[in-house]
Amino acid sequence: MTLPELIRAVRWMVRDTFRQSLATKLFWVMLTVTAVCTLVCLSLDVHGDVTPVTELDLPLVLPKAEADKLNPEKLKADGVRVISGEVTLGFGTVTVPLGRNREDAVRFVQVLLAGGVGDTAGVLLALLWTAGFLPIFLEPQSATVLLAKPTPRWAILLGKYLGVVLFVGLQAILFVGATWLALGVKTGIWTGAYWLAIPLMVLNFGIFYAVSAFLAVWTRSTVACAFGVLLFWLFCWMMNYTHHRLVIYPPAGMTELAHTSLEMGYWLFPKPLDMGAIFYDAMQADAFQVKAEEVRKLQEAGQFQPELSVLASVLFTLGVLGGAAYEFRETDY
């Protein structure tokens, strides 16, 4: 098979995936989620301080709600700066006192959107909603038509995998772009670091969708793909968290074998907690949100290696895709 033929086959599978997303209405479901989050962003407004607050200012800064409880003369004498701002949601329905400044408030919303809605709930829902793409595609009545053509099975599987990842990537671009634009229009704050959420969300999804692809080839069951990948994500998160926790607070009597097994498990499997920490640092969220204690202490000790964490997760993905391609090649139709 020549390279142009391979590219054409993969491209056709990508197009078929987008056709499938439209046929199942998944495209519109995910677009609706983006529209709802965009509407929430359009309902948000920030009033008050615009001056950034630096780390050196922290001991001398108080929100107005807290300052009102103290003696104003003493605050003035001590040089305490009072921030008198607020955040409103739902077109003024809900009001939240502003503890820092306008930019921090907007970035806080962006971290919630990208980290909570997009990278956690969004990725998990995307894994659930796309779990049936490959099992349906691999049913004998569907697959035999494709397998009759002179196209390597691994190319067919790769094309379908890339199609799903690109579909989710498009939805991630629409989600981040629409919410970023809505927040910028409403508040006048345009944070470029927010766009880093797109590659991190797509990478996180792609890593775990490789497991879904392997389960699809192995079982051809949508239920097995959906619940299997969710259980695997939960296992990886617990492995990631447990590793950091035990490295920072090693229990008494922990054997060398247990420590080695923990390190092997950490480096072998994907690391969703680390992915979130990378985005947290990219958004400089320390200014308005408390970082997970385990990650913070690991960073302070110089033992957090985000580049190696991402590399190990990518290598895991390639290995799982290789196993799925081998299983697909050996499957009889």
Description:
- This protein has 333 residues and is mainly alpha-helical.
- It has one domain.
- Helices cover 70% and strands 6% of the residues.
- It is built from 14 helices and 5 strands.
- The protein has helices at residues 3-23, 26-42, 64-67, 72-78, 102-129, 133-137, 140-147, 153-187, 197-219, 222-248, 256-268, 272-282, 293-300, 306-330, and strands spanning 45-47, 61-63, 81-83, 85-89, 94-98.
- A hairpin with a 4-residue loop joins strand 4 (85-89) and strand 5 (94-98).
- Helix 8 (153-187) packs antiparallel against helix 9 (197-219) and helix 8 runs antiparallel to helix 14 (306-330).
- The relative contact order is 0.12.
- Mean pLDDT is 82; it is low at 52-59.
Q: What is the beta-strand fraction?
A: 5-15%
Mean pLDDT: 82
Structural class: mainly alpha
Order of adjacent strands in the largest pleated sheet: 1-4-5
Roughly how much helix do the residues carry, as a percent range?
Answer: 55-70%
Question: Any descriptors?
Answer:
single chain, about 325 residues, mainly alpha, two-stranded parallel ribbon, 14 helices
